[in-house]
Design goal:
Layout (H helix, E strand, L loop, with lengths): L2 E5 L4 H12 L3 E6 L12 E6 L5 H13 L6 E4 L9 H18 L1 H4 L7 E5 L13 H21 L5 E7 L2 E2 L4 H5 L2 H10 L6 E2 H11 L11 E4 L8 H8 L3
Parallel strand pairs: 1-2, 1-4, 2-3, 4-5, 5-6, 6-9, 7-8
């Protein structure tokens, strides 16, 4: 049985990833600030833990507890994002970058010495592009986390640990699908601009993460895989002309 640790596991894509891993029979350590219920009837084992990722000492303590329990990971997935009420700059860098680095720094102790092993970080298009709706801290935090994963790919590769990033476009998830599905104009917009003709779902991204966290991806590391239906391939001028019917 593989052991998978999912950080930021209680909502959205993190919750979908946990359900996916449980369905394939993993032992899943699901980490969040609270707990959650997970769909499906998989054969895996669920172990829920509560950790405040904004607290560096708490993260160190959690990592130490895993080592003391002799937990040895096959896969580690970072799905967290900052949702606190404090300084967004410090909070975003703490949760997205510093906490991720703490786990990476202990990777040689946390991961199993043999077998298939890999890490995946969930990023955002704002790690590469500048867009509306998110502060500078979110842009910088995602960009820094992207490069941190590339750094890990080079420096942990000799230990047999892969490191990749998945970047979804706006997608349907349990917390927001009602809003999108009820907005016919918005849904038609996505159908018109996305080359595959639809919005993505949390399952689309979870499937890519599951692939990267499997022996089928044994020679894939240091990559940032866009799960966007091909939207990032469309030249902005072409997209603007299409939207303006020019």
């Amino acid at each position: 049985m593989n052991t998978s640790l999912v950080i930021g596991a209680t909502k959205g894509l993190g919750r979908e990833v946990v359900a996916k891993f449980l369905s394939r029979g993993d032992r899943v350590i699901a980490v969040g600030r609270g707990t959650a219920s997970y769909p499906g009837d998989g054969t895996g084992q669920l172990d829920q833990r509560s950790v405040d990722l904004a607290d560096a000492a708490a993260v160190d303590g959690f990592i130490a507890s895993l080592c003391a329990e002799n937990v040895r990971l096959n896969y580690l997935v970072f799905c967290q994002r900052y949702r606190g009420q404090g300084d967004p700059w410090a909070g975003e860098l703490d949760v997205s970058v510093r906490a991720t680095r703490q786990f990476i720094d202990k990777a040689k102790e946390l991961f199993a010495p043999t077998g298939d092993r890999g890490m995946v970080s969930v990023s955002s298009v704002f790690g590469d592009f500048v867009g509306e709706g998110q502060p500078a801290s979110y842009h910088v935090g995602k960009a820094a986390a992207n490069h941190l994963m590339r750094h890990a790919a080079v420096n942990l590769g000799r230990n047999g640990i892969r490191s990749n990033t998945v970047t979804p476009f706006t997608f349907l998830k349990e917390e927001s699908c009602e809003f999108y599905l009820a907005n016919d104009k918005l849904m038609k917009l996505y159908e018109g601009i996305v080359p595959l003709g639809r919005m993505g779902s949390a399952a689309d991204s979870a499937n890519v993460i599951a692939f990267l966290c499997s022996p089928e991806a044994a020679y894939v590391t240091g990559q940032n895989i866009y799960v966007d239906g091909g939207l990032s391939l469309v030249w902005p001028e072409t997209l603007a002309r299409k939207l303006q019917s020019l």
